[in-house]
Amino acid sequence: MNEQTDIHGDDRKEKEPFRIWKPTYESAGKKKRVNKWWIELRDHNGIVRRLPGLREKNATRAFGRNIQALVSAKQSGEPLSPGTIDWLSGQSPKMLKRFVEIGFINDRFAANQRPLNDHLEDFRTHLKAKGTTEQQIKQLVSRVTRIFNECEPKCIWWRDITATAVKRILVDLQAQEDGISKRTAHGYLQAVQEFATWMVEDKRAYESPVKGIEVNVKETDAKVVRRALTLAEVVKLLVVTRHSTREAKMSGLARSLVYRLAVETGMRRGDFRALKVGSFDFERCTVTLRKSKNGKVKVLPLRADTAKELQEYMLNRLPGAPAFDVPTKTSDMIAADLEEAGIRYVDDLGQVADFHALRHTAGTWLGFAGTHPNVIKDVLRHSDIRLTMDRYGHLFDGESRKAVESLPNLAEAVQQATGTDGKPVEVTGPKVVEDPPEKLGAKLGAFPRLGACGRCLAPVAATDQAEHFARGTRVRPG
Fold it and tell me: β-strand 450-453 against 475-477: which pairing, if any?
C-alpha cells in the first residue's frame, strides 16, 4: 500500500490540524485506491498517527475533528466535552483499544464506553480460563445479567451500576410471592461483586460500585431446610420403591439403586445425570465422577454388595450409555416414592426429605458413626472444611470431651509416683554399664531391644520389662 503518493480528495483549502486521504495499492500492475478514507494527525506528544476513517469523506472529516478534540483535551488537561464522550461511546472496542494505546484515553474510560454485555462476554472467557465449570459459569453470568436487567433504569453501561439499585433489586426479589431465599439472594450479590471485582482487577474500572453491600443477605438460612432420614425410613423407601409398579421415567429397581447410591456416596443429582455405565469399575468397587460440581475428577468407593447389584443391573449395556435416566425434577420423583412408602415429605418442623436430603443423610450418618470431619469432607467433596463443619459440626460436640478423657490420668500417676505417704518414691531404671570406646563398636549389635515406658518415657531394656511392669507401669515398644 502506498500511503504517501495519493492524497486524492484532501481538501487543502480548509486549514484542519489533520489531513485525510485515500491510500493506493497495486494489483495486477494497476494502481487502485482503498475503500476507506484515512486520517493523519499529530497526537499530544507530537507523534504522527494514521488512523482508518470511514467510506464517506465528510464523515471521515467529522471523525478526524473528534479525534483532534481528544488531542486538544489531552494537551490542555481539560475534561472531554459531553459531545466527545457521546461520540466515544459509539466507537468499536477495537478503535477504543487503539485510542488507549496512543494515550488519548485510559483503559478504564474505554471500558466505560463499552456495554455491559461485552464485558460479561470477556468475564465468561476469564472464568473459563480460570477453570470454572460450564455449569457454574452459566449460573454466575445469568445471575449478574438478571440483576442488571431488572434494575430501574436498566443497567446497560458500567456507569449505570449503583449500590442503591442493586440493593433494591435484591430486596424486591426476596419480597415477591415466589421470591428467592436469603441464601439465594446472597448468591446473586456474590455474583455481581465477583464481576465488579474482576472489572477493577482487569483495570476496566477504578472501583467496585457494589463493594460492601450486605442488605442483610449474608445469612445463609436456606429457604428449604432438609432433614436426614432414619435407617428405618431409608430401608422402607428402598424396599417399597424396588417393588413399585408406578409408571415413571425410571423403573422401581433403577430408582431404588439411585437412592441407595445417594445415601452411600453422597452423590448429587447432577452427578447421577452425568454417570455412564463405564464410570463404574466393578472389580475395584469404585465410581468415577468426571463432571462433578467442582469440575474435578473424583473416584468414590462403593460397597462390594452395592457394586455387585449395580453390575447385574447394567449387564450387557455399552460403556457409553447413561447409567440412569434421572429426571430433571428429582424432588417430584422421590416425593411420589416417599408417599408410596408412607414417609412424610415434610415433617412437623417444616424440614423436607427431597432428593438432596439423601446426600445430607449420608453426611449425618458418617458423623454419627464417628467419622473424622476431614473424611466426611472428602466423601461429600466439599471445597472447604468450614462448609462440612457448618453442616455437621453439631455431631462432633461430644468428641472434645472424649478426647480429653482419653488423656493419661495424671492424678493416678502422681499418686503412684509419691506413694501412699505422699513422699517421692525412688524410681530406678535399668543398669547401664559403660564400656571403653574400643569395645563399644563390637557390642552395638548385641544391645538388648529397648522400649519406652508408657508413663515415665524412660528407656527400658527388654530384660527389665517384667520388673517395670511389676511396678504398675506399661512399656511401649521402641
Answer: antiparallel
Q: Which of 101, 145, 107, 105 is nearest to 123 (CA)?
A: 145
AA identity, residue 215: V
Report phi then psi at 299, rounded to 5: -105, 120
Virtual CA dihedral for 289, 377, 137, 218, nearest 10 degrees?
A: 160
Strand partners, 289: 298
- Three-state DSSP state, 247: coil
Q: How far apart are CA 72 and CA 75, in angstroms?
A: 5
Confidence band for 237, pLDDT divided at 50, 70 and 90: very high
- Residues 236, 244 contacting (CB under 8 angstroms): no
By the 8 A CB rule, do 53 and 37 touch? yes
User: Going by DSSP bridges, is the β-strand pair 280-281/459-461 parallel, antiparallel, or unpaired?
Assistant: unpaired
Residue 462 makes CB contacts below 8 A (sequence gap 6+) with 448, 449, 450, 451
Q: How far apart are CA 133 and CA 274, in angstroms?
A: 14
Query: What's the rounded mean pLDDT across residues 17-39?
Result: 88
Whether the Cβ atoms of residue 264 and residue 362 lie closer than 8 Å to each other: yes
Cα distance between the two ends of the chain: 87
What are the backbone dihedrals phi and psi of residue 347, each rounded to the nearest 5 degrees, phi first? -90, -175
**222: pLDDT strictly greater than 80:** no
Q: Distance between CA atoms of 415 and 12, rounded to whole angstroms?
A: 111
Other Cβ atoms closer than 10 A to 397: 8
* Angle between helix 355-368 and 252-265 (nearest 10): 40
CA distances from 73 to 44, 47, 92 (A): 9, 16, 21
Q: What is the pLDDT of residue 80?
A: 85
Cross-strand pairs, 452: 459, 476
**Which helix (H) or strand (E) is 165 found in, with range?**
helix 163-175
Q: pTM for the full model? A: 0.50
All cell numbers assigned to 48: 504522527
**Least-confidence region, from 15-29, 212-226, 272-286, 313-327:** 212-226
Residue 37: count of CB within 10 angstroms of its CB: 25
- Kindly report the backbone phi and psi dihedral angles of residue 429, in degrees, each rounded to the nearest multiple of 5, phi listed first: -105, -175
DSSP lists the bridge partners of residue 451 as 460, 477
Q: C-alpha grid cell for residue 447?
A: 544391645
CA distance 34 to 388: 66
Cβ-defined contacts of 20-27 (< 8 Å, 24+): 20/53, 20/57, 20/60, 20/61, 20/64, 25/1, 26/2
% of the chain with per-residue pLDDT over 70: 75
What sign results for the dihedral spanned by CA atoms 379, 380, 385, 388? negative
Whether 195 contacts 120, CB under 8 Å: yes
Element at 200 (helix H, strand E): helix 182-201
Give pLDDT, residue 219: 44
